[in-house]
């Protein structure tokens, strides 16, 4: 009888330990998901709508790719760059830019590679519209 009670007691202790572990795991998951959500809320997301001189489009695209590559490689706060052009009018370029926060964007526009890009394309860009947007939803296949 005593061994049975000891066995039941040990099983209850293991169940309590398991319950403690589950509660701690849940709390950590909640904490990290809140941090991830707050990081996303702090992100700065911008669309740059650019009309480029069609005669200089190849030079513009080259300068843009160079700047984007440098920004992603060198700046931890530059998270995403996508540049697309209108199929019917390739000189109409839209860039999706995502920064960790506004401070990362402010740092980005002071970098040598960004200043070089702006100087290089100043006579190529016919118009520029910057639109700050909020992310509603995102879906992405895993890499």
Automatic annotation (TrEMBL):
Top-level EC class as recorded in UniProt: oxidoreductase
Domain of life of the native organism: Bacteria
Coiled coil segments of this chain: none
Molecular function GO labels: monooxygenase activity
Keywords carried by this UniProt record: Monooxygenase, Oxidoreductase
Keyword Oxidoreductase recorded: yes
EC numbers, comma separated: 1.-.-.-
Pfam families xrefs: ABM (PF03992)
Domain ABM: residue ranges: 44-134
Protein name: Quinol monooxygenase
Species of the source: Pedobacter sp. KACC 23697
Lineage: Bacteria, Pseudomonadati, Bacteroidota, Sphingobacteriia, Sphingobacteriales
